[in-house]
Predict the structure.
Amino acid sequence: MSATLPHDAAGTTPQTAAPLARRVGAQARAEVRTVLRNGEQLVITLVLPLLILVVLTRTTLVDLGTVDRVDVVVPGIFALAVMSTAFTSQAIATGFDRRNGVLRLLATTPLGRGGLVAGKVVAVVVLEMLQLAVLGGAALALGWRPDPAGLPSAAAALVLGTAAFTSLALLVAGILRAEAVLAVANLLWVLLLAGGAVVLPVSMLPGPLAEIAPLLPSGALGEGLRTALAEGAFPASSLVVLAVWTAVLSALVARTFRWS
């Protein structure tokens, strides 16, 4: 015996929304496809980190103060990849979606605001897994051998770093105009790359920056990954800094984000 769906007054079968997981998955796939088809975003999320990885490990253009260059560079490249995808790329995409009314329209669909945010988070995680697979494979080919004891700590740093930078992206995209988001996101990416202890360790930064960088999300993520993957140690202070940034930025996003 087959079940009979209820009909409305016009005698047609009413449409029902797909389960939440399917709606979030569809939104995440759309977000991933948008990034993979955008040449500019591919450059900043994958091409530049891969280029910096090869240059810093295969040349002596930058004195890293150690013969184990690959052990210093690879964790920093992972941190740069997370920052590029979770912050720069996500901030720009969300800022222009907000300007074009996409956020406001999607928020009125069965996906809802919560599903939209969940879809963005899932998309960031998928893109980061693709980045880490490509960059990790290249690093292994260049001779990188991480300390297995530090892998769980590194995973925790990646999760907290993703949460902190995604929150920062939504904060910037939710209060600024799209053109300003584009400028601010790219400027912060450059500044943090140069002096935020992302690729270069804190020990290589000049005095004031060496004191400040470990307290930034970029420095905490970079130093945390270097401590875990190169030394096999637990980066407690870096994880605490990332957790605090995530909590503060998330609270600010909840209070200030504008959907249109």
In short: The two ends are 49 Å apart (CA to CA).
